[in-house]
Amino acid sequence: MEKIRVEDAVGAVLVHDMTQIIPGETKDARFRKGHVVQEEDIPVLLSMGKEHIYVWNQTPGLVHENEAAERLAKAVAGPGLTFSETKEGKVNLIAKHDGLIYASEKGILALNTLESIVLATLHNHRPVNKGQKIAGTRVVPLMIDEKVILEAEEIACNFNEPLLQIRPLQSYKIGIVTTGSEVFHGRIEDKFGPVLRAKAEKWGSNIIGQSYASDDVSMIQDKIREHIRNGAEMVFVTGGMSVDPDDVTPTAIRGLEVEMVTYGAPVLPGAMFLLAYYNGIPIMGLPGCVMYSRTTVFDLVATRILTGERLTRKDIAQYGHGGLCLECPECTYPHCPFGK
């Protein structure tokens, strides 16, 4: 710590908060601990009665907490992110647009194992809105050895993807095939269609058509093909997803010679979910819970596919940890553990 004249303090780092009192207006810290004194600060400090201030000795090889936080933020941030104002040695990462968080859990762990490095984020694949804070970074000491920052920057560069990014949901053309003889023959009203239309609209996609099929394998297959011929880039197939003998939807989808990802998911609600790819086009078999539960495995999977991600069986299996919905009286998703 060093005592110097205010006029000689440009570039120096304050070691404590400095309070400014303006009678009838304010009494608050005008300059915070760690602030780097600028030329324009000199008249303000003098007006506060400060002719001398205490600052950190400038030591080669040390980086101030503000600069360190800014360098960390830039090292981990990818597309879709911007930065808050640097304040008290901390920088927040902010979503530039709506979308899903894609976070490298291994990369975040690698950074946080470095001494004095702090990177705190929201969960991977969480939906976020433009302007939302998704992460914060800082270092613990006021001044940190630059070697640590350089190591952190190198770690971030060694990953194929940015450690943090926001991927927007793309607009897909979607077809719906609603199965079940009771709906096909008009004995009951379809309840699935309105739910799926509302979700697709919320996600920025378009339902280009909805067709109906009885519990007949060939008819279900024909309806799926028809939507694809009409330009569907994704198909939702509802109903007939359980293991009852007359529930033939999984059989129909498999019979299209699809690339089957999974029939079944370790998520409740949504255990009977099906995901397959037909000539690269995602086909989802949706269990009945999608119709009446506000959030299910469908919300977790469909949004990731809408970012352009191609999911694997392992991706679905990983939902088991955090895949239990507590079915709260008032749903607060995504502000809850579900799908995390």
What does this structure look like?
By secondary structure, this protein is an alpha+beta fold. It has helices at residues 41-47, 65-76, 105-112, 146-157, 181-184, 192-202, 217-229, 249-254, 289-292, 297-306, 313-317; strands spanning 2-5, 18-22, 26-31, 52-55, 62-64, 81-83, 90-95, 99-103, 117-121, 127-128, 133-139, 143-145, 164-167, 173-179, 206-213, 234-238, 259-263, 274-278, 281-286. The strands form six sheets. Strands 15-14-16-19-18-17 form a six-stranded mixed sheet, with helices on both faces. A hairpin with a 6-residue loop joins strand 6 and strand 7. The two termini are 46 Å apart.
- This entry's quaternary arrangement is single chain
Number of domains: 3
Going by CATH, the homologous superfamily of the largest domain would be MoaB/Mog-like domain
How many strand segments? Answer: 19
What is the CATH topology assignment of the largest domain?
A: Molybdenum Cofactor Biosythetic Enzyme, Chain A
Beta-strand residue percentage: 25-35%
Structural class: alpha+beta
Strand order of the largest sheet: 15-14-16-19-18-17
Give me the Rg, rounded.
Answer: 28 Å
Average residue-wise pLDDT = 93
List keywords for this structure.
single chain, 340 residues, alpha+beta, Molybdopterin biosynthesis moea protein, domain 2, Aldehyde Oxidoreductase, domain 3, Molybdenum Cofactor Biosythetic Enzyme, Chain A, 3 domains, six-stranded mixed sheet, four-stranded antiparallel sheet, 11 helices, 19 strands, 27% helix, elongated
